[in-house]
Amino acid sequence: DEGPRKLALCVLCGLPAAGKSTFARALGHRLRQEQGWAVGVVAYDDVMPDAFLDEASARPPEQRREFEKSAAGLIGPQNSEPFQWKVLRLELLKYLEYFLMAVINGCQMSPPPNRTEAMWEDFITCLKEQDLIFSAESEAQSSYLIMKTDVSRPLLLILDDNFYYQSMRYEVYQLARKYSLGFCQLFLDCPLETCLQRNGQRPRALPAETIHMMQRKIEKPNPEKNAWEHNSLTIQSPACASDLEVTDLLHIALENPVKYVEDNMEQKETDRLICSTNMLHQVDQTLRKVVSQTMKEAKDEQVPPYNLKFLAEELNKLKTEFLEDLRQGNKKYLCFQQIIDIADVISFFNYEKDKIVLKFNNEESSSMKKPSLM
After folding, report:
1. Which among 21, 41, 107, 194 has the fewest CB atoms less than 10 Å away?
2. Beta bridge partners of 336
3. Residue of 93, 64, 98, 97 whose CA lies nearest to 81
4. pLDDT by residue (tens digit) across 276-329?
5. How far apart are the first and last CA of the chain?
6. Any idea which of 71-85, 122-136, 191-205 has the lowest mean pLDDT?
7. Pairing between β-strand 133-135 and β-strand 182-189 as defined by DSSP bridges
8. Helices 81-105 and 166-178 sit at what angle, rounded to 10 degrees?
């Protein structure tokens, strides 16, 4: 017995159309052939529900651009779409965790009780096509799946997405730490002009402005600042790093799993840096603007002064709770992950704010009619 199976998660990040998916497929093929590893490439674009994306394409052009930017987490619109997108990303991480638990424990994998059916099916198809699982036909429920891979072979999961915010990658690192897996990052550094040109040739192209915004906001791996990002490699695309350089990085990840620190000192330090006074100030300023804009819209709707006072109290109370939540470590509204960036906070706030406005509008319409303007 050679001990526990070697497992690693590799985050592949970069701008849309940087060549990540092509690179991931070629890398997976080479590692299977040359190293004899089991490799799973999980492309987020392939697994995220088509229905959610199709909703965007059915909208008028102006709305569609706003939808696609909000789905990328770049703006905080008046609806819950970025919130939905974030929840789907976290749900996909939960699927990966179910798969990893089955690998680690050598058991069958059952579907999560709460799941987005279309996304779960696409995730299962992704694993089946790479010979990582197959249906357990002998079971009463054919939805149960059993591992197919040779347990003596290392298993590498390559997660292919933009991962342009540090916090998105940190979620994957947390998963690696939870199960003592290897962790590494490959950043495809592709010129903006090349990405825009490739994107324009795609059947479902993103708006060019979205890629411009992502390029301005992208947070490249920073090993000097973040100890957890030390196992990272930047690849100039389209000219790639040597195969040996990439393979060495992956070997290091497999041989040196992330150790779970009981007292979570590293996590606390990361949280402290990200939820700094500067960030709190920025969030406070932005939330003030959101509340102010919402109140202006309510006044434009001719809402009576008494009701305006009530709405203002509710929104300011929500703002205060959000800021306190951010200070105290995300226990109530921001409980989906340990650390989050400003765009995420604004998206969550808009989601909660819209619920207050909706409730307010429903109560107002049921209790009184607006006075007619003569």
Report:
1. 107
2. none
3. 64
4. 556 777 888 889 999 999 898 888 888 788 888 888 999 999 998 888 877 776
5. 87
6. 71-85
7. unpaired
8. 20
Question: What DSSP state is assigned to residue 33?
Answer: I
Name which of 56, 47, 38, 135 is nearest 93 in CA terms: 47
Q: What are the b/e assignments for 217-249, b being 16+ CB within 10 Å?
A: ebeebeeeebebbebbbebebeeebeeeebeeb
Paired strand residues for 189: 236
Of 103, 89, 91, the closest CA to residue 8 belongs to: 103
* Residue position matching structure tokens 């305006």: 308
Query: Contact, 220 vs 234, CB < 8 A?
Result: yes
Task: Pick the range with the lowest mean pLDDT from 23-27, 96-100, 204-208, 234-238.
Answer: 234-238
Type and span of the H or E element at 218: none
Distance in angstroms (rounded) separating the CA atoms of residues 12 and 238: 15
Residue carrying the six token digits 């790479």: 130
155 in helix, strand or coil?
Answer: strand
Looking up tokens 């604004």 gives 346
Structure-block tokens of residue 196: 């825009």
Q: What does residue 228 show for φ and ψ, rounded to 5 degrees? A: -70, -10
pLDDT number for residue 229: 93
pTM of the entire predicted model = 0.65
